[in-house]
């Protein structure tokens, strides 16, 4: 049986979270059960003449309804067209795609670092870990943005019962500053063995990557790149490897080890 | 009666006329996660060169209207690793394997094909004379004499069929096709990508680090069809049609203009299972129109005048 | 500060860089029902020939992915009626008039331009060397020597600027451009359509009675941009960019690759008022990016390497 | 002021008349007042990647609502996408386009001959004539189709109070036979001066054109052709003229005199 499938799904739910941020749920997708945190789906967006599909991290899944949720921000033509989707509209979904986050070791403190639209896969990972028996007390969710409007879905995050640290550059919510400063503080204040998982803007990921290396903390980051195919056959979504040559973000990634990629 | 969609190129049979195009299906591994490669008429592997190549830095693809630009720069694992790992991987599938090769000069093509001759899983070789993204090759694609010479030298070292893959970026593609036929090519495949470009108006940067790249996808289908039409009138060897094919109806158009098989490229990036659908729909079309074999359609366009 | 979108080609000023392309705006009458032609930088009239021509029978246009095919066959009213009626009609608009001409041989071009020389409403002539739909012309488009000779003979009889319009269906468009420059062309315009084809799979008939035709529209934009980019590196005379332009952002791309003005063709069929919108949006873009004059952008692409 | 405009309109009403026949009303269009019977509009259809607009005859107008109605049959990709339009969807409309039917002389008996989707312009003309003082008794509406399902909007036609003659090839409704036989009978039975107006499949129009010439009856027909531009600038929509050369269906037409075109 195929690991990756292409299916037509319908929009079953749509929520406007902020003026330019939406969550949509699509169903039915036959492979919901096999989706792992960090994986993404590739959507063909109707009503815009874009040639390529667009990639979106899975935000949550509901195996009974065979539905999956994604969260997106209006960015360009594709996401603008997605914002005008209505319940019942159909679209083609290709997935599940890419690598997923590995599980932490049982004794590790878990740093979850999200920025902006990097939130969905980190949220999904957090929830997945908790549902799979990890102690929420050991999960530290660092959520950064420029201002309070960048930090979406806080109520939902709160429900997970983990430790959350909100950080905004303008200080409008939580700690004022960069999310990496809060993470560094956490590194310094906690002695136990730690692991970090991060997704967010490339600038933030670069800082997280450096910081983790500096403190010798293992972990993974989730990268983005424009993705023509999403399945590894076009060689368009490459990033340079520290070890030389390139790697594909859609196939070897989007989840990479700390220190693996030249950012 | 179930219609016959098998075809024959240079004495080799193909279970159906749908191949995947070089550079758009890797070495098959990724597509195998989506469908059984044995459903393909054949797979044309990513161009291989003597030495492994990383290709151009990012960005090396860009979106276009009904298509895309690429300047991958012939990224590939090199012939050694290709033979060892990739050809071996393909053993298990019941489909034709066409190995696409490129080099900087005639002797590169000859050396590569000599190596491949010892590996019968390479059912055919396809000589990429036409990649517009590296200096390599483009010269042969536009020089009839060089093309003829290269084909004839390859024919001496490779005992199975040899396909010459042609570029549309020439004044007369038919002239190059005739030269390849004279050199002994068993078939020609066409077209490779059209030279194209795109610029980001915010950064003033080209959208490809190679500055220019190759345009592919439905946008180029009419150009590819006209090329097949012209080459069909000029040569006797079979033609494999390539360029913007996205559905069964496109395949029929290519056959009518002179193709004996086709390759699907860029469409795989948007609909990776397109070959499977197309094979099904081709059968339906033939049944509905009471055509016994798809081979009957080659060159059957009813031209005006 | 309102940004300056006026341009200059061969000493002639244009109020803005947006012209309508030959064969896509008739002689202006129909578009004048939609917007005031004085809003255009210029209008390039449908190719005229010595004698009136009906052109090819129907069907002579077909839809394509992000574009269309045409083989109109140079249908036109002939030079006499053109001068008498059409040029006179255009008197009343404050815009540049470029008269596009074609013939079967050099002397046709010379005779047509000699006739037009007496009619100063023809601000410029554009020599259509590149129409792929009639035997006429295509030879000159692919033959550098013939192109040079034709331009230089026309220059002797036409005292205002002469533009040579080039075909992309050649191995090196830059070579042809250089030849035209050597012949004395004041500017080159590019590209004309790409040779293409489409077939109806129900009737097996080509979708054009001419069998093949010219592909135009957004589908060919990347090819046109690459041509402008290459020609800009090869010649010193100004370049008028043509091919798939549908919005202001496309215009900026053409400027960055080397254009000093552009022509809008096929887009007029879908959005006949596109030039008016584009002019507005160009101004907005320049304001927003604090660019004083659009002329600054010509050739400013920041290439890699 | 521009005679022809391009405006974004919304679907304000949509009716399914038969499984593959729909009427949609769009508004607001600033030029509704200047639309004449026989003219058409050129629509850019969303949600399908078609490059060209598609032409549709105006079926009715409502000057107060600034709306116009078109009636269409699902034929190919464009009309299929139109069938899935919903109330509130927006599309670009270019118009009004083409020539219109000329008025009959006051004393003439008026033959209105429609086949299939040729119905809308002939219906609009009939209504227009009646609203402009022509006596419905002098209007003879011949409506032909293969079977009863081809004859749509009969209730609406009836409301006009004109003489209607229904003809089907299979006899499932009205007279059995070809619509031209009914017209010929009318020619023979009525002595007064007559004029005909016709729109329908090309085969029917050819028969009407011949018949009218044979009986020396003046009149007009409405033609179709694939139309890239609809405004006369592409020269793609040509038909050969009896007098030599070609004419444009979108500009000189779609309304032509009987005997003018080689069909
Ligand atoms: C693995 C993966 C997961 C993603 N998950 C999410 C998610 O959960 N939520 C979300 O809102 N977005 C996500 N994205 C990003 C999303 O795919 C982009 O927002 C989208 O591609 C932009 O599309 P657009 O058509 O709106 O913009 P476009 O008009 O395509 O893009 C505007 C600009 O952005 C560039 N661009 C386009 N796509 C990308 C990309 N993928 N990376 C970097 N630059 C790009 C284009 O080159 C262009 O310059 C993800 C991307 C990847 C690769
Ligand atoms: C002036 C005018 C008025 C019209 N009024 C109506 C109307 O009131 N109601 C209605 O249902 N239809 C009308 N039509 C026809 C309508 O435009 C066509 O049904 C439509 O173009 C078909 O579009 P499609 O995308 O569904 O099919 P396509 O997929 O475009 O067409 C399928 C096939 O039909 C051919 N074709 C496309 N358009 C035309 C055309 N205009 N004439 C002949 N062949 C064509 C194509 O070449 C193709 O082979 C009118 C056409 C014209 C020119
Ligand atoms: C991303 C990409 C990579 C390609 N790489 C190769 C290649 O390595 N060798 C080759 O002969 N052709 C290569 N091609 C060209 C395709 O094989 C094909 O000839 C071309 O894309 C036209 O077909 P299409 O429109 O179906 O894609 C490549 C095309 C694309 C889009
Ligand atoms: C229907 C049609 C007719 C054309 N006729 C002419 C012509 O008579 N002379 C000419 O030089 N170019 C002609 N062209 C080419 C255009 O001027 C232009 O070079 C080409 O279409 C590319 O630009 P576009 O993509 O903006 O249409 C024609 C193009 C089309 C689509
Ligand atoms: S998107 Fe094609 S290889 Fe990654
Ligand atoms: S549709 Fe373009 S001239 Fe009639």
Task: Walk me through the structure.
The complex is a heterotetramer, with 2 copies of chain A (263 residues) and 2 copies of chain B (305 residues). Chain A has helices at 77-83, 119-131, 154-159, 179-189, 202-214; strands spanning 5-18, 21-27, 40-44, 54-57, 60-62, 67-73, 90-97, 109-115, 139-145, 163-168, 175-176, 194-199, 219-222, 238-240, 246-248, 255-257. Chain A is of the alpha/beta class and 263 residues long. Chain A folds into 2 domains: 5-97, Translation factors (Elongation Factor Tu (Ef-tu), domain 3), CATH 2.40.30.10; 109-257, Nucleotide-binding domain of ferredoxin-NADP reductase (FNR) module (Rossmann fold). In chain A, helix 4 (179-189) packs parallel to helix 5. The termini of chain A are far apart. The relative contact order of chain A is 0.15. The model of chain A has no long low-confidence stretch (mean pLDDT 95). In chain B, strands 3-4-7-8-9-10-13-14 form an 8-stranded parallel β-barrel, surrounded by 7 helices. In chain B, strands 5-6-12-11 form a 4-stranded antiparallel beta sheet, with no helix packed on it. Chain B has a two-stranded antiparallel ribbon with strand order 1-2. The longest helix of chain B is centred in the last third of the chain and has 15 residues, at 274-288. Chain B has helices at residues 78-90, 106-117, 135-142, 144-157, 173-183, 221-234, 248-257, 267-270, 274-288; strands spanning 7-9, 12-14, 18-20, 42-48, 61-64, 67-70, 96-101, 124-128, 162-165, 187-190, 194-197, 212-216, 239-242, 259-264. By secondary structure, chain B is of the alpha/beta class. Chain B has a single domain (7-297), classed as Aldolase class I (TIM Barrel, Alpha-Beta Barrel), CATH 3.20.20.70. In chain B, helix 2 packs parallel to helix 4 (144-157) and helix 7 packs across helix 9 (274-288). Chain B has 9 helices and 14 strands. Classes of the chains: A alpha/beta (263), B alpha/beta (305). Chains in contact: A-B, A-D, B-C, C-D. Chains B and C meet through strand 11, helix 6 and helix 7 of B and strand 11, helix 6 and helix 7 of C. The structure holds flavin-adenine dinucleotide (2 copies), flavin mononucleotide (FMN) (2 copies) and FE2/S2 (inorganic) cluster (2 copies).
